Amino acid sequence: MLKKLLVANRGEIAVRIIRAARALGIPTVAACSEADADSLAARQADEVRIIGPARAERSYLNAEALLQAARDSGADSVHSGYGFLSENADFAEAVTAAGLVFVGPDARTIRRMGDKAEARRTAMAAGVPVVPGSPGELEDVEAALRCAETVGYPLLVKASAGGGGRGIRIAHDAGELRREFPIAQREAQAAFGSGAVYLERFIRQARHIEVQILGDGQRAVHLFERECSLQRRRQKVFEEAPSAALSEAQREALCASAVRLAQSLGYRGAGTLEYLFDSHSGEFFFIEMNTRIQVEHPVSEMVTGIDLVQAMLRIAGGEPLALRQEDIRLNGAALEMRINAEDPARNFFPCPGTVEGLGWPQGDGVRVDSHLYPGYRVPPYYDSLLAKIIVHGKDREEAFARAQKALDETELSGMATTLSLHCWLLAEPRVRAAQFDTGTLETWLAERAAALEV
Ligand code: ADP
Ligand code: ADP
Ligand code: MG
User: Fold this and answer.
1) Ligand 1 center to residue 289 CA distance, Å?
2) Which candidate in 21, 194, 272, 413 could, as Cys together with 161 as Cys, close a disulfide (CB 3.0–4.6 Å)?
3) Please, are residues 38 and 61 in contact by the beta-carbon 8 Å criterion?
4) CB-side exposure of 102: number of CA atoms within 13 Å?
């Protein structure tokens, strides 16, 4: 078992990790920037280390400062959550080289799957279908134009090192590809430190469905799927488990392919394999793997009753996976609503402020993951996620009813938030009927904006 855990992250996920560690009796050290010295994570952890100024480059992205905090506090392990250094192979390597445990897969696996072109090749080798595209990175625009002949238009130019919905550009024809390709390369270089890009056919009206897996290096299991098709700017807004679009046979095939890929990697820790699902043909295609805990992990916890973060800590502590696949059952349905400090009426402009009134929903099947407290000043330097409201019901209908009740009970004043967007989504018949794909929410938002302007 781990002896003392450094939490190398902030916000709701830092609080989430501290809760899991506490449940296992592992003392925690919150690594905080100066801007987060009064955060809920700082209040809840057993110890606090200030790792640097507000700017993430000098704190949450500063590997040396984090390692120093681990050494100074006598921590033996590091959990990096999501975002920041969570998928940085060099960081994982540095943690290990310092004699500490990195809670997650080994650096080699992170590097391999963090390179999205390499991840595609790995998936193909494991017999997992991928989106038709270039076999690997493309040197120049001429190579891209040649490759595009077989891939077909429209297609996406994607950054091999991309993430967070960024580093993806669309081209509808050769002329557009010729224009977009060098822009994509330059942007990828600036944003991710690597200009490597590859091509993928654009799958129209696809649904984003991903599979949660857990592995101990020897054996891997799946915890079924999550659907995250409701997206804005390729970032998830509303997620659910299970997907209402899959038949039982499709679910089985999808989850089995994810386990196959995880097994082929000898995967250790929690991970997610993301796919696009074509509900017309019933085909699914692997797009990428996230070698970390994901924002939307709670919906899987709600439908399986398994605590993923505790499982990560146990595996990192050297325990073999206690779960057998046949023991993992899908129970009911769960929804997650991401509440961000963004104003839906002003094109989701970020608007952090000070929390005034705060009241969370209660009752059966309701869970809130948040780092807010009354009087808390949301710092403007980081991601705008304030809270995740997660609900569980015996079926999708009950989950929606509970979600509605949960939003009615929520009080969050002091800043504009995306709560109103979720009220609208819950009332939208096409959401209730699960009739959506990854492009739907953007279309609805554009229609709504146009309607408001008349
Ligand atoms: P999830 O599937 O867990 O939502 P995301 O890819 O949306 O994963 O990333 C989770 C968080 O990490 C988001 O808040 C996002 O802003 C951030 N993030 C992920 N990858 C990157 C990246 N390469 N650059 C910047 N931010 C990132
Ligand atoms: P990131 O690393 O930023 O999360 P992903 O490769 O997971 O990037 O893609 C993010 C989102 O972009 C997907 O959920 C989907 O909505 C869209 N997308 C990605 N690849 C394709 C594709 N080939 N066709 C259609 N949409 C895609
Ligand atoms: Mg993704």
Assistant:
1) 12
2) 194
3) no
4) 28
- In this prediction, the residues of the chain whose per-residue pLDDT falls under 50 are none
CATH value of 5-103 in 3.40.50.1820, 3.40.50.20, 3.30.360.10, 3.40.50.1980: 3.40.50.20
C-beta of 82 in contact with ligand 1 (< 6 A): yes
Q: Is 446 exposed, middle or buried (0-12, 13-18, 19+ CB in 10 A)?
A: exposed
Please give the torsion angle defined by the CA atoms of residues 248, 208, 219 and 306, in that order, rounded to the nearest 10 degrees: -80
CB within 8 Å of 2: residues ≥ 6 apart = 21, 24, 26, 76, 77, 101, 103, 313, 316, 317
**Ligand 2 test: best mutation among 82, 131, 234, most atoms within 8 Å of CB?**
234
Q: Which residue owns the Cα nearest ligand 1 atom 22?
A: 163
Give the whole-angstrom CA distance, residue 382 versus residue 7.
17
Looking up tokens 């920041």 gives 84
| Closest approach atom of ligand 2 to CA 208 | 14
The pLDDT value given to residue 452 = 77
- Is 292 part of the annotated catalytic residue set? yes
Amino acid, single-letter form, for residue 431: V
What dotted CATH number matches 206-453? 3.30.470.20
Taking the C-alpha atoms of residue 41 and residue 48, their distance in angstroms, rounded to an integer, is 9
Residue pLDDT, tens place only, 129-157: 999 999 999 999 999 999 999 999 999 99
Instruction: Check if the beta carbon of residue 80 is closer than 8 Å to that of residue 67.
Output: no
Q: Which of 49, 251, 268, 292 is catalytic?
A: 292
Does the predicted TM-score (pTM) go above 0.90? yes
> φ and ψ at 451, to 5 degrees?
-65, -35
